[in-house]
Amino acid sequence: MRRTIATLLAASLTSFTLAQDTAAPASKTPAQKATEKAPTPQDLIDRNIRVMGGKDAWMNIKDITMKGEFAVPGAGMGGPILLRQKAPNLQLTTIMINGIGEIKEGFDGTNGWDLNPMTGPTLKKGVALEQAARSAKLSSVLNPLEDLTDPRTTGTVEFGGQSCWELVANGPGGEVKMYFAKSDGSMSGMTMTADSPMGKINVITEMKDLKKFGDVSMSTEMTISMMGQAQTIKISDVNFEPIDESVFALPPQIAAMVKARDEAKKKAESEKPALPTVTAE
Q: Which domains, from first to last, does the chain contain?
């Protein structure tokens, strides 16, 4: 759930970035001792899953609803945030920002989209669509390396004020780096390159305040830094009650865009010149 939330929010919150990216990358700690053996990427993932409550507990979860507060302290903006996911790959994030209005970002299993008063309705495509599809997968809770390639443990770094193992993998938009606390194995954060209406941006997410909800545990405080702007998320309530699939239906504006896109594609296909027929002599 930690990587799921982080990637989901990175896709949802890029509209609030206002300045040039100045966030500092994780800094390297002194070289590892020769006797210290680095854990494999899967070792790091497995240890984090145990901290979060274990594989069996998470496999029983099919729906998640999270409520909390979103804020951009430097811009004086904020409001309630609602995140909903349903297995296998339905997702909807809703944020109500004071002075701006309601912002939504979703994935219906096929289409990724945004509804934003500042930018209007948008259909995701290319890398942005791939990232939205990956973050919508509830299975990524147990397999955060799903759809990523070449995972490797690169060493120890200082991240979020503590010593962490750094796991690096390749994603559609570039490198994804995950940080796992050496003290208890919990995931402390991640960095990634996200596609946005403003182009590719570097996103740094720090996660803390692990709390238990039912049989599982998850971070309830996140700080997301991109383009020099810090955004905070504080989750106050989590439940696992079934969510009706209609919740994830495309909004009318987005449905109209999907229809127009599909009709244009169909028309273009029909207007392609027919290939010449070759007959045997």
A: 2-244+252-262 (2.50.20.10)
